[in-house]
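Quick review question:
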């Protein structure tokens, strides 16, 4: 797989985020788009962090005075890049759903109806 394909989702997110200044719509505005991306990025980061981690006890390379479950190599740069790509794809899906009103916020049942509490 060509290396430049990894750049496509973040670039698409950046372009769509900048275009929100010029596209009037009922969906995401610039600030809600940024907030949704940041929340998505952090949730994705905590999902990606434990993937591929090998503890010192598993690898047999114990450093004196450390926890046996401490990772040997954490590879944060690769995990941050993977997080950015996955969060960009998730954000693009959410952007399309909300901007083109395929799903509106009124379609999502946050609370039950007024009369549903009556028995």
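Suggested answer, residue by residue:
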């Amino acid at each position: 797989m060509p290396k430049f394909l990894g750049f496509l989702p973040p670039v698409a997110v950046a372009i769509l985020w900048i275009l929100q200044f010029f596209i009037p719509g009922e969906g995401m505005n610039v600030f809600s788009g940024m907030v949704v991306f940041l929340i998505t990025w952090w949730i994705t980061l905590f999902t990606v962090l434990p993937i591929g981690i090998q503890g010192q006890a598993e690898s047999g390379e114990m450093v004196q005075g450390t926890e046996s479950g401490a990772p040997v190599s954490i590879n944060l740069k690769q995990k941050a890049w993977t997080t950015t790509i996955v969060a960009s794809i998730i954000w693009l899906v959410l952007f399309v759903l909300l901007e083109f009103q395929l799903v509106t916020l009124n379609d999502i049942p946050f609370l039950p109806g007024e009369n549903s509490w009556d028995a």
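Why it works: The first helix runs from residue 8 to 19. The chain has four helices and no strands.
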